[in-house]
Description:
The chain is an alpha+beta fold. It has a single domain, classed as 4-Layer Sandwich (CNF1/YfiH-like putative cysteine hydrolases). It is built from 5 helices and 14 strands. It has helices spanning 57-71, 139-144, 146-156, 180-185, 199-206; strands at residues 13-16, 19-25, 28-32, 76-78, 88-91, 104-107, 112-118, 122-129, 131-137, 160-167, 177-178, 195-196, 211-214, 239-245. The longest helix is centred in the first third of the chain and has 15 residues, at 57-71.
Amino acid sequence: MSAPASIELEQPFAWDGDHVAVDLGGGARGLFTTRRGGVSEPPYDSLNLGRFTDDDPAAVQRNWQVLHGLVGGERLMLAAEQVHGITVTRFRDERDERPAHADGQATAYEPSMAIVLTADCLPVLLAADGAVAAIHAGWRGLAGGVLEEGVAALHDLGATGPVVAAIGPGACGRCYEVGDEVREAFGLEAAGGPAPIDLKAIARDKLAGATVHDVGLCTMCTDGLFFSHRADGGVTGRQAGVAWRA
Length: 246
């Protein structure tokens, strides 16, 4: 496994120990975790945050404590069971209800952090003046409009000004092959069999009105640094994309 420091990142991304930090501007911050720094045993080694995996629940809970420490403070953690849909929650303060199922978290409550989990799908962090969001964007969510819903959630929470987006580690356009069903969902021509598709390029197109930064890291081909559902044969952990207002 390559050392993170040997992989060069471009601004606004930077290594924070074993993990990728990102400056979203205006006091908003983000973090993309790797699979390093936790307590889980193989095949979930080691910072597995997936509560719905077959990992030891006690280990997963300790890993969530590690995540909390990485962000710092006692921030309220906003997360939900993800279902590859387009629901993005809106969180204004601690009285707001937290749905059990959602594929995005948007918050204007400063003592909180928005969290999504991935293992090839894209973690996309959004920020505007007054709110941040974390979005889980697989092909179904991208086709259904989850990124557009994330931007709408920021505005619903009263955020103003330009939107900044950070696309985190996900399967790249060279590695991620899909069938014609997926290609047709994006209006692409049928390939007659598995063919690569670039989810990151699709995400950039969906965020045409925002300033978009891509970390440029692939979960499938970055030498085991990330959990990957496809590369790990379907038995794997989950890493996080986290956004908060500093």
